[in-house]
Amino acid sequence: MLFKAIYLLPLLPAIGVLINGLLGSRFGERAVAFVACSTVGISLILAIGMLYQMLIADPAQRVVTSTLYRWISDGSLQINIGFLIDPLAMAMIMVILFVGFIIHFYSIGYMEGEPGYRRYFVCLNLFIFFMLVLVMGDNLILTFVGWEGVGLCSYLLIGHWFHKKSASDAGRKAFVVNRVGDFGFMLGILLVIVTFHTVSFAELKTILAGSHGIPAATLTIIALLLFTGAMGKSAQFPLHVWLPDAMEGPTPVSALIHAATMVNAGVYFMCRIFPFLQQAPYVLPIIAFVGLLTAVYAACCAVGQKDIKKVLAYSTISQIGYMFMAVGCGIYIAGMFHLVAHGVFKGLLFLGSGAVIHAVKGEQDIANMGGLIKTIPVTSFTFLIGLLALAGIFPMAGFFSKDAIIMGGYERFGIVYWLFGFGGAVLTAIYCGKLFGIAFLGETNFKGHIHKPNFFFNAPLVILAFCAVVLGILGLPMFTKNTYFAKFMSSSFNLGAGGHAAQGHGISLQVEIILTLIVSVFAIAAVALALVIYSRHRKKAVGFEARHAGLMTVLFEGFLMDKLYDTIWVRPLKWISKNSNEVVDHKIVDGAVNGTGKVAMGTGKWLAAMQAGYVRHYAVSIVFGVAVFVGITVMLLF
Amino acid sequence: MNFVIPDVNLISLLPEIILLIFATILLFVQTGSEKKRICALLAFIGLVITLVMVPFYWGKGIEGFGGLVIRDNFSLMCQTMIIVAVLLAVVYSYQYLVFEDKNIGEYYALTLTSVMGMNIMITGTDLIVIFLGMEILSISLYVLVAFFKTVREGMEASVKYMLLGAFASAIFLLGISFFYGASGKTALNAFVMLDGTSAMAMPLFFMGLSLILVGLGFKIASAPFHMWAPDAYEGAPTSVASLLSVAPKIAGLAVIFRVGIGMAKYSPEIMMTIIAFMAVTSMIVGNFAALRQSGLVRMLAYSGIAQVGYMLISLLGIREGGGSALLFYLFIYVLMNMGAFGIAVLLTKEKDKRLLIEDMKGLAGQHPIIAFTMAVFLISMAGIPPMGGFFAKFYVFKHGIEAGYLWVVIVAIITTVVSLYYYFRVIIVMYMTEEEEKGILPKHAEVNLFNAVLVAVALLIIVLGVIPGSLLEIAQHAVAF
Q: Measured between CB atoms, does A598 come within 8 Å of chain B?
């Protein structure tokens, strides 16, 4: 059985880290890349084998656990190093390893000749390792280890070009904002430990399925705290501000970490702890609201962006918002389907943008591109496929996945919620059309020689584009809850006796088809319109934007969230820290610390001075000890 | 009165007999630099044989000499740790004895007899047997400390150590005689008799107990009986200091554990208060005095005093299975302390020159692997995850709190914070300072086997920090009577 070798999945990338990290200084670039890619590649092959075995297995036997050893044991609390693979984890593993492998491959060409080539691949492998630990861990603590590990890798990779100040600043910002979320996450874990005395997902699920007698308020607080962590990691409003800046990292990193895998960890985690969400009454609507807000907000911001990667970054935030909408509506499977589809097409888009940036020698402003379809056709067409999938155009994967979410929103929360979701979808279509219209169509604005992308660029793009088209099959048959994907995933989400599925209004097939058609038609129209406007009538469009410069700035700056944070957090903190540096630190703390240090050092000096070297002094010390012991004996006896 | 010949079961003392045979053979090896390798090898083989025997004894609880000696799991676990420590010390000695050509056979013979003494201490169930073991150990060590006859500090340290050791032994013996007077026996399981003895015997009994603890406190270098330790460690050859700083502490703590187990049923407050006093003073004295030290070995000596304080905390919870925490801590302590002393051995340039912490400047730049292993040992001693020292402290503190000695644990945590200063000072010196002079390491230090041993020890510490479970289970098994 392949499942006996579960631990090999994360182990192999870890071996890659060790080989490249310890011995890599003697390797050439190709050898480093070969080690990094092959370890992930073998893991991918193993994972595909496991996926196959899981598919032919009976749905009830699709949950596999494997415990390596007991890590910490403290009374009733046992924490194992163990892995849990069920369809939910399997879907994530496939995204991580498949997209991860392709991006490893792509990086061979992209990073060629860059300084820090080995460091880059070590971090990339380390990231795959931690990401697998995150999704495969069978308990909260192990997941948390992976959670922090990917955060670390993200920090290292965003700041890969650390001599660039903006890059190291962006890395730090990502780190700090994530700490806010992780603080909630940690509190949540602690509360789980205190309440349940276990951190194992399987045991928690069993406890929650029975009559546990734990008040709903406690469950609500736990769920909200854990959701805070998910918000940080998955860049949900208002903790999203780090993600656009994270684009300072190399583009393959943006594709892997900030589009396909890590930022989706929050969605995965919410699905993993869905028994909590089901029993915590107010949490699901809160998640649904945060998701919707983020989806629409980020889509607006994306329209106003000028940098090709920033458009995609905001679009990622927006799409993850859709995933959280799905979670909030209780249709976890639809959320996971969108996660998988998004992982593929957003990975494709980022890799495509990387190829474009490489072709135009580091230019990222879309206004300076234009007409690229004539010079780099493969990149352009695959990019177009990715954009169509993002905009949710039939028959791309994004159409099926997003439609299910918007429909689920209607079913659960009614027409107003649907309208906003629909509006977000239209906005998505608009910025997709705008991006392609400006950058790839019309006359070219780029003066200079264009680098033709080579095999390392094109092969990954074509593979991902193919997947972005055919993945939609998983969403068939439409308009039912029994899609192929849902059938596969169902064993992860079967509720115990005490659970209950999400309740909807129950809508008829006709309504569903009509609403889907409305969304589709509007999306297609929006894409087409934006395409035409920004390619044929670019001057007019630019003029229109110039007349509404204020609005565009607001959109460009992400509704001035950074400024807001600067005002309410950064500046007061700077002020406080400046003052505390002068007053509190120098006078009070330094005084106290130095005082303590002086006392400690003084004690040490005194003790050392007692050690004068005379035997008689030493003997006196022994006599003193005898006296104390006898004294204790006498005191306690009488 | 008819005399019953006790049931002499020589199997129970087979490891000691083997050690004695090897020690005797070593005495006959002619001295000379070309024989160094043979001597080290003989000592090594003798130790490995006794180590290999441990699994065969495991779980059998073989008794000998009418119950005077018992090889239960606890003593086997201690024996394993002692032999591991001494094996490392033999490796260090082989490295270190480039300075000396004379009497190498005697050096290793004395090392083996000291192991024999410690083994007798940990297997003995009778105070007289334990005293015998203690004296075999002590006399071997007195000579070893003064092994470099031309080094004045070594001679001085040896004399001091011997005088104070004799003093402590006398107190220990006085304690035994009180004990005998109160209970009529010298066996540690004589506490059974207590119920029948008169009320007058009780004060005498406890007085004897506290004096016995003084003698043992001296052996484990716990405050306020610690003062010999820094001088002796610094004066002794560094390889002997490494042995001195680890192995006798294992034996002494094992005896205290046996006494405590015997006491556990009868008003243990007196013993627990004495142990708490020793623990607190050791932690305070050790950690604070270490702050001021400029010599590496001296700093490690005070750190060792502090570590003993932490280990004593586990004995406060002796009735709640604190012994497992003690064994866990001891095992980690063996690794990290022997590791740090190994670095000291490696860096010592001349036999009569003190190694200063300042001398380690820029070590990381020139010898990254050695600096890294040293960092692992120090971080583990400071009790920071993911090193084994973290879990060692964690379990000890846990048992201390469960036994109701929260205030002791609070002192322990505060002094741990203090200890960060002097442990990290070394790391800072190694990593943060520019390399000033080339070639910190003396020429003889370019031995790859030695480095490999250090790396292995460091890796083991990390592994035990990541996977502490199995060692803890063995330890729990060993203290389950």
A: no
